[in-house]
Task: inverse folding
């Protein structure tokens, strides 16, 4: 198992011991894994491009090959959230 640090919106950090893939399974549709080390909450995405995604005030890398799926997931999330 790995030590995973969850960064909460109130700046609190929670340590979780397990596998990122297990966390990804239980996180739900509002989350997407943009990189082997980052699972993001789509509610806090401010901007994205083929190389980076800005979540709140933090810029994170987008893994090669994950950009297309990120766009699909974000548009699906946004459509669901806005009831479009």
Result:
């Amino acid at each position: 198992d790995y030590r995973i640090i969850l960064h909460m919106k109130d700046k609190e950090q929670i340590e979780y011991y397990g596998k990122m893939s297990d966390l990804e399974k239980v996180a739900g549709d509002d989350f997407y894994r943009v990189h082997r080390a980052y699972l993001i909450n789509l509610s806090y995405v401010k901007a994205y491009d083929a190389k980076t995604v800005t979540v709140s005030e933090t810029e994170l890398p987008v893994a090669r090959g994950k950009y297309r799926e990120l766009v699909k997931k974000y548009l699906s999330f946004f459509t669901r959230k806005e009831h479009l």
Notes: The first strand starts at residue 2 and ends at 7. The chain has two helices and seven strands. Strands lie at 2-7, 13-18, 31-35, 38-41, 45-48, 52-55, 58-61. The first helix runs from residue 20 to 27.
